[in-house]
Write a structure and sequence with these properties.
The complex is a heterodimer of chains A (200) and B (244). Chain A is an all-alpha fold. Helices cover 70% and strands 0% of the residues of chain A. The chains are: A mainly alpha (200), B mainly alpha (244). The interface between A and B is large, with 69 and 50 residues.
Chain lengths: 200, 244
């Protein structure tokens, strides 16, 4: 292997390592990391989005939505390691959102613009969850009563259902004494939630 | 393994293949299990929606701060008024030149005002690796503005796998590469053969006619567009009026 290749390889390795750290940092959910990644990719994304002739406001909105979806997938463990750079994920998700927005603006663009053509799924994005549909009545009810639960219940359930923590990880994170304690705390929270909804 | 553990492992992404099979079978056969799963899945969706709203709210506040941190707005304003003044002068100058030079400049200007390259709306390029197809490569070239390469690749796509929209993007590539005749042929082909991009093809045929100062042709294409479709209708009406 010649020197140039070797150097190249090393650059990639260093680069990858930095990305991994960021994934871990992202997972921890700190606001400063959230912001840093937001700023680092913002201009690149907006430049990319501009070619689709949406308004700047729409582009910013789409960037934020793409970021939310990406972050959600990092949190739930769907993105386990970065196989691509963060911006590639954002572009991939963003592209779908842009097409979606163009579809919503349909009348402004074309009456016969067939977005079904876009259908072929991007492999990278297809491993992600992109739920954009609005909540069902039951889900809205759950959301409402979830917010009436005690702080500890909310935190526990969020760790489990949003962050995708295992029972063991919740035990370590929130200093429960044993896995069984976590399990029974979770059952109690769920029971309260069910009862409140039933009483609705 | 009990049902409780199966559900827990599902939500923490820890089902083994075997467990996944049990899980799926239970979903089919056990109504109570299914109901529990639905409840938890709905709860997950509700919590995610809540968290996503929180994240979105944070991003909106970052955005506001970024806007504030760029204190060039006042500077921008004075530049903007300068720019407006400059464009007025330029426009007056152009009007003068147009007046002297007769109408031909007017068409060039109308073309410049109305022509925009059509973005790739059909093929998501980010799709990774597995399918290094001609179509993908063609759209990569198209998106990066390398129209000659795009043409070469689009043209190589065998007819049995050629999507109906390819002709339209071939037309676009030729147009952007400055080859009007080929562009016209592909747009006409699209109008005859495809279900999509028909209105768009009329629009771009009008653009080419304008570029070539063939006003009768431009008017004819614009009328077809206005009478049959909504795409760029307002622009087409305005343009038609200008040509009159």
């Amino acid at each position: 292997m010649n020197a140039v290749n070797l150097l190249h390889l090393q650059t990639i390795k260093v680069h990858k390592k930095q990305l991994d750290i960021t994934l871990e940092e992202l997972r921890k959910g700190s606001d400063s990391v959230l912001r840093r990644v937001y700023e680092e990719n913002r201009d690149k994304f907006l430049n990319f989005a501009r070619r689709y002739h949406l308004s700047e406001e729409e582009n910013i909105d789409i960037y934020q939505d793409a970021y939310v979806i990406f972050y959600d997938n990092v949190m739930s463990g769907k993105v386990e390691s970065f196989t691509s750079s963060i911006s590639t994920y954002l572009f991939g998700i963003g592209k779908y959102l842009i097409f979606d927005q163009m579809k919503k603006n349909k009348r402004k663009i074309s009456s016969e613009f067939d977005l079904a053509l876009v259908g072929e799924e991007d492999e990278l994005v297809s491993t992600l969850e992109m739920e954009e549909n609005s909540l069902t009545t039951e889900q809205k009810l759950l959301q409402k009563y979830f917010s009436t639960l005690g702080k500890q219940c909310q935190e526990l359930l969020t760790l489990f259902y949003y962050r995708g923590f295992t029972i063991q990880e919740i035990m370590d994170h929130a200093t429960y004494n044993s896995e069984n304690v976590v399990k029974s705390a979770k059952s109690r929270c769920m029971k309260t939630l069910r009862e409140r909804i039933a009483a609705n | 393994m009990d049902k409780e553990a199966l559900l827990t492992n599902y939500f923490s992404n820890q089902l083994t293949q075997e467990e996944r099979k049990m899980f799926d079978e239970l979903l089919d056969s056990d109504a109570e299990f299914k109901a529990r799963f639905d409840f938890e899945q709905n709860l997950q969706r509700a919590i995610k929606a809540e968290e996503n709203q929180n994240v979105k709210a944070k991003l909106i506040s970052f955005e506001k701060e970024i806007a504030r941190e760029i204190p060039k707005s006042s500077l921008k304003k004075s530049y903007r008024s300068l720019a407006i003044a400059a464009s007025i002068t330029l426009l007056m100058g152009l009007a003068w030149i147009g007046y002297i030079d007769g109408t031909s400049n007017k068409y060039e200007e109308l073309y410049a005002q109305n022509f925009q390259e059509y973005p790739n709306t059909v093929y998501a390029i980010t799709r990774s690796g597995s399918e290094e197809s001609l179509e993908r490569n063609a759209f990569v070239a198209y998106e990066s503005g390398d129209y000659d390469a795009a043409i070469e690749k689009f043209e190589q796509i065998p007819s049995e796998v050629k999507q109906p929209y390819i002709d339209f993007f071939l037309g676009q590539s030729y147009l952007n590469a400055g080859k009007n005749d080929q562009a016209k042929a592909y747009f006409r082909e699209t109008i005859v053969k495809a279900d999509n991009f028909v209105a768009e093809s009329h629009w771009y045929l009008a653009m080419i006619a304008l570029k070539e100062k063939d006003i009768t042709e431009a008017e004819s294409e614009l009328k077809k567009l206005i009478n049959g479709y909504d795409y760029n209708k307002e622009k087409a009406v305005a343009l038609l009026k200008e040509l009159d």
